[in-house]
Amino acid sequence: MSRTASTGVKVIIVGAGFAGLTTAIECYLKGHSVTVLESFPVLKPLGDIISFAPNAGRIIHRWPPAPISTAPTVAEQYSPICLRNDIFTFRRWDGEFLTTQPVHERKEDAPEFSGHRGAMHQILFEYAKALGIDIRLGLRVVQYVEETDRAGVRYIVRGADESTPEPEVMWADIVVGSDGVRSKARELVLGYVDNPKPSGYAVYRAWMDASSIAQDPLTAHLVAGADYHVGWFGPDVHFIFAYIQNTQSVSWVCTHKDDADIEESWSFPGKLADVLKVLDGWDPVARRIVQLAESCVDWKLVYRDPLERWVSKAGRICLLGDSAHPFLPTSIQGASQAMEDGVVLATCLSLAVQRGDPLPDAVRAYEKLRYDRVRRAQVLGETNRDKWHKADFDKVKEDPEGMKLGRDEWLFAFDVEKDACERYAAVVDELKKRP
Ligand SMILES: Cc1cc2nc3c(=O)[nH]c(=O)nc-3n(C[C@H](O)[C@H](O)[C@H](O)COP(=O)(O)OP(=O)(O)OC[C@H]3O[C@@H](n4cnc5c(N)ncnc54)[C@H](O)[C@@H]3O)c2cc1C
């Protein structure tokens, strides 16, 4: 796979998260001209564990090495720094063994990746740069504008006077608002401010060096061998631990009831004493993991009802990734669906050029092709959470199968690019019939 000849389509992408970078890479490889604007002035390895399911692994696997770089492919770089176990162990809150489930099947053409978000993001960013994609850091987009034949953005240069955005509008054929859960683009697309709602849950999260776990007699067995992945489940709480041998790191997340109504943030500091309160009376091994941490993040999970649309009136600005559809972590699909979005948008733009369709039709087709599948994956987050949190824990020992996560073919075996190519024409022709 190498770069397709130029299509002449110019795309501005706002946000260089996984959604923005994937869209940029896919657009670039398909011959569109791309500029990415990101408000962070420098890239920092932020976050902790993030997962890409096989449906996203298939996308990553297809990316070729960058021509001028000697670095291995993105998939080759992800492999050694990601979880490489193939069994997930379920325990009841008190430590009682329940069952195991095979996970992380290493299908070569659709691998599954779970690793440190910051490290994985850095690799993706370096790859996009090595391809030659124009990525501009330190530019915060503050306004989206749209005319019938073009769309644009105004931005503020980091550190400049906040009240005076750059006077010039930066124009393109299409603008992509992949600007995350607190999207500014969403206001333009919806025509109103969409306020997030608390989901009723929050997650304490930590990523730490494995050495303290290795030195404690109660926890040493967790990191004594190969990669290890285990979860403890109790009434309305679950606690998941992962050991990634090659990075000598461990991560844990503790999802629990929480009705606090604050803005979601990845850097809100949590208190370890509060985590231990949530885990009061739980397996001493789980509690000791928390006691060995130096700090954790308290991430209040907010949620949004599905948005009515992802595309602006004139069809030249669209939402993509978390800005269009935030996910509950129990879906384990947020980042994967963001990647799928990017592939579909880039594919639709290419097919529009080939068929001579107006570009706004391609953008509307992107929404149409994605909407139902994304919604189905979003609902999975609620189903999985309820499966784990509302289980009858007295009975779960007799029938632990009910705790296992669905690893459905419709989700994992899906080739998003193939699907977009197959359905695009019918979707656009249908859209054209509308008044
Ligand atoms: C700092 C950070 C840490 C995270 N850590 C984790 C984690 O540990 N585990 C996990 O599962 N998920 C994490 N996430 C969320 C996860 O990355 C996303 O849910 C998923 O990858 C979808 O990505 P996205 O690109 O749609 O959104 P995001 O990853 O949120 O990316 C959006 C990007 O847009 C930029 N942006 C926002 N507004 C503007 C603007 N006005 N102008 C220019 N740029 C703008 C942001 O700086 C950000 O880089 C994190 C997100 C962030 C931003």
Automatic annotation (TrEMBL):
Keywords: FAD, Flavoprotein, Monooxygenase, Oxidoreductase. Residues 10-40 form the FAD dependent oxidoreductase domain. The keyword Flavoprotein applies. The keyword Repeat does not apply. Residues 121-376 form the FAD-binding domain. One of its GO terms (molecular function) is monooxygenase activity. PANTHER family: MONOOXYGENASE, MONOOXYGENASE, PUTATIVE (AFU_ORTHOLOGUE AFUA_6G12060)-RELATED. Belongs to the paxM FAD-dependent monooxygenase family. This is FAD/NAD(P)-binding domain-containing protein. It comes from Heliocybe sulcata. The lineage of its organism: Eukaryota, Fungi, Dikarya, Basidiomycota, Agaricomycotina.
